[in-house]
Amino acid sequence: MAEVAGLVIGAISMVTLWNTCVQAFDTVASGRNYGYDYEVLRVKLEVERIRLLAWGEAVGLASVQKETTDPSKAIDTRLNRAEMRDTVLRLLGCIQHVFEDTQALQRKYGLKQESLLGGGGSQIHLALPSSETQQVLALVFKRAYSNLQRSANEYQQSTPLRLKTMWAISDKAKFIHFVAEIRGFNDSLVHLFPDMVTKTNNTLREDIDSSEEIRGLQLLQQASSEDHEEISETASERLNHLGATMASLLDDQKTETASEAPLPLVPVKQAQATAQKGANPLPKEGDANTPVQTYKETELEKELDKMEAFCDEKSRGALTCSVFSADWSARWTASVYWQGSDRAWIRSFGDDYKGFVPSVHTAFDLYRKRKYITKSRQSEYESSTDEDYVLLDVEADPRYDNLRPGTVTIEGYGLDCWEYEELHGKSHDKTIIVSTGPLPDLPAKKLLRRIDELQKMTSKSLGWDPQQDADDLAEFAGDGNWYFDGYSRDGFLIFSNFYSLLNRRPIFTEWFTTSSVSLAIHKDPNEIWYFLWQVILGRELARRLERFPDASVSGFTLHILSTLIVSDLWINNVKFVLVDEKEAKKAKKKEDAEAKKKESEPMSQNPSEGSSATVKEGSETAKKTWKFWKKGSSAKKQEVSKFKPTGSGKKDKAKDADIKSWDEAWDPTNKTLQIHSLVHERQVEGLLRFAETMKWPYMNEIRDYAENVYANLHAGTTIPIDLYDWIFGIVLPGKWMAYKIVAALVLCTPSLTKEVGTAKYFDMGLSLPKQAYWRSRTVLGRVLGCLPGVKFLCGWIGPCPPLTDGPYHKYIRIKPRKVAPPKQNNRTIRIGGPGPDEGEESIRIQPDEDIQQWMTEIKDKSRWSIPEPPVRQMTTCTLEGIRVKKQPLDTSLVDNQSDMSAEEIEDEIQYRASLVFKIDNEEPVTYTLYTNPLFVTAPSCIEGPHQVHLRELPKFQRNVWNVENLKEVDSSEFEDNGVMIINATGKGAEAVARAWCSERGKSAIVRANGGACFSCAYHVASGKGLGTNVLIWVSSS
């Protein structure tokens, strides 16, 4: 009984919240001027309501009436599952929150309260006002609006939205963000049920195809052209059928003005009366007599508009930051834009200002992740894809690192917040669809043949022969219940099929859980075939994602992303060659004779997994693999039953004969399979470029070895697995690539190989007698990144000064704690609004202040001034020493210490770092690096420096500290006094400021040469921006 009651309560909650959401759209009118542009914007929003209504009908929420005793039986059965129900409730809750967040509606989304509807106050009782937008669309989507009518009659009086503020569109550009936000939540709801995508689209298509409302179709076609191409195309086809086009609508708009064609609003008294009588608030078909009242601005509002325009002009080109997170996801995003800047300019040139680090060599491209799901068009506003909600590694994102070593971009700050939420925030349930159907029986020759075919294909070859494409896919995925029509807009279900198959574990490897792709496929003779099968499916998926942009279905996981990356690397960087064994033996004898003449010693390896296995081309491992296939085994796990694919239709016999012939050409029986790197020269060149940039002290040694490593491999020399990964370019981006490039650097330096080997952890730095190298995301990398001569490349900071007292020739792991991002209400970063430094110093109107006097003061140009940045200091700060101290072994390892070798124990030891500075002639001061803060470099503003009102001016001057005073400062002296400004204009002072931040656990905004003006940098650090409340001011130039 308790379980049944729980289902009923859950269903009622979903139905009530869904009804609340569909009614919430009525709180938004078009705007004060009611011009055609505003009408189109309102239609864009109304389309999202129609999609939400259609979705509710598809999953059964719309069919639940208020008197229904057990709604759980009326809705889609999947909604009765706890994880699905919770996800739907969170998404609907997000939609409701967007409409109820009054601060965001005004500041972020460009809406203003409609004072017409407020009288003495702006709240009204809603009775579903009959706007022109609804009137014209109600005649197109009759079914959706019928559900809306019933929802209003049955649920409105019991929902919290029946008493709400009315909003008008005042900023078109910002309002597009509002529509995009709602559209994203709608997309997520729709794609929770992949089979509902087609059903929902068909419902909307049927309504459009049966409509004769030309004006509604014309508005719908234009409003949906960017975001919902299928709706726009259907409306266009219907208009053509009716003999109408967009031209007639556009011609009408040439002579129509805002005053001549206003969007009507229902007067307050009429709305209240209608609600009390329980009458139908929506117009009936053909009813053109709905009373309307045109909105007119008051004189006060006109004055406020002028004042707002004055302030906007003052802030033109100023930086504005936002940080966003949603309760239903761990994802955080941070962005920056310039006030008043054209969106096209930001798309074209904004990245140049934001400080993203470009790749300087093709081998270094491996450090960054490429995008696999793309958008079909460059719209004015960027929207997220399913791929954007999967975090592989923050370093892998091209937007993470800043050009200034040791710092990140504002976008990178959002990525770090996301990672922190993943590691330390609340858990978020994820529904993953996994296929359990039968799998095909795949001999080695088929796998090798298809790999060769895919290497010769491009995405453009997909779609010329849909039947052949379907047959190719069925051969390696199995027919089962797959839907192979991937060529129409309704064929996106095929992506769900791909995801459910590739998410099948342990058949397919999760590459993000291993440090070496090559090791994973060579340690077991059978793994190579499972690996090639996964590569084939990953490549087939990538081809379709490239050909069909905007692919969005649930199930895109970290597993899928890593498969796409590894498949892409293997197809582009590796080549198989089959060699007859007899010929191979002759060649081998010759190679052995030449190898004896060489004085080269095989190198051992100590990979991060602790294995000492090595990979040798043509080794016994490979031979065992070929013997494995002589026995006729298949490439699937033993516990999976055999399945012979039947294809998607009749096949051409001649084509079947060709395929059989191609398969035989790739039969590895009695042949040796050689693995060739297509990028070994590029990889060696990139390694040497890295060594030169980072001032590697063993350049001659590494050059001699690296230039010959691939030839030695072909001659039979065994090489370490990490070096093998690098030479073949099979490396995941981000921390994996950073790990591999330094591992390859050390392994190509014979004098270091035995003593140093490879690191066990990704975040280990390398200590040498004359210099050191630290990972860019570690505390030493971030603090020392500002030292002269130190550079950033591929996740590394160096060359840095050596440790004062060692140890040397060793990987070092520093132990700090991570600094949590600033939060409010345990969840949300402060975005805009009054920060802790405001109050009476804000330009906002104060309680009991006369509004006319306030407006006069704000518009007075003489009361605006450019705040003076910190005065340049002549202080000289010198780094005297870097010391590390061993920390006790982690408690989780103490009990197992007796079973560990001395080398294993040494690998687990972590160190605490401290920096010793001498400031002028004062006594040396030591900073202990207890935490690992973030340092964010803000981009430069435009048309700066920007002025501030005299009301705000005091806060820019009162909390400024010189570096020589930082050590003794008490937190009470700066934490409650607004943004702390550290004057780091002296020589070497920035390193002291960063070290202080690490000791005190404070992330900071860094302003260096060419950066933002003082006003903009201050606001980025304040509660209006990222909320770090610390600004390191390095230079005023």
Structure notes:
With 1037 residues, this protein is an alpha+beta fold. The chain has a 5-stranded antiparallel beta sheet with strand order 11-12-10-9-13. The protein is built from 36 helices and 25 strands. Strand 5 and strand 6 (332-338) form a beta hairpin. Helix 2 (36-58) packs across helix 6 (142-155), helix 16 (444-456) runs parallel beside helix 20 (527-547) and helix 16 packs across helix 24 (653-665). The model is unreliable at 1-5, 115-130, 156-163, 245-295, 483-491, 599-651 and 824-840 (pLDDT under 50).
Question: Secondary-structure blueprint of this entry?
Answer:
Layout: H1 2-24, H2 36-58, H3 82-100, H4 102-107, E1 111-113, E2 123-125, H5 132-138, H6 142-155, E3 163-165, E4 167-169, H7 172-191, H8 194-209, H9 214-223, H10 229-242, H11 246-255, H12 268-277, H13 299-314, E5 319-325, E6 332-338, H14 343-354, H15 410-424, H16 444-456, H17 466-477, H18 493-502, H19 517-522, H20 527-547, H21 558-573, E7 574-580, H22 581-597, H23 620-630, H24 653-665, E8 671-677, H25 680-693, H26 699-706, H27 709-714, H28 721-728, H29 735-747, H30 750-756, E9 765-767, E10 772-775, H31 779-784, E11 791-793, E12 796-800, E13 810-812, E14 817-818, H32 851-858, E15 864-865, E16 877-886, H33 891-894, H34 902-908, E17 911-919, E18 925-928, E19 931-932, E20 935-937, E21 948-949, E22 960-962, E23 980-983, H35 989-1000, E24 1004-1007, H36 1014-1021, E25 1030-1033
Parallel strand pairs: 14-19, 20-24, 22-23, 23-25, 24-25
Antiparallel strand pairs: 1-4, 2-3, 5-6, 7-8, 9-10, 9-13, 10-12, 11-12, 15-21, 16-17, 17-18
Helix pairs in contact: 1-3, 1-6, 2-6, 2-7, 2-8, 2-9, 3-7, 8-10, 9-10, 16-20, 16-24, 20-21, 25-26, 28-29
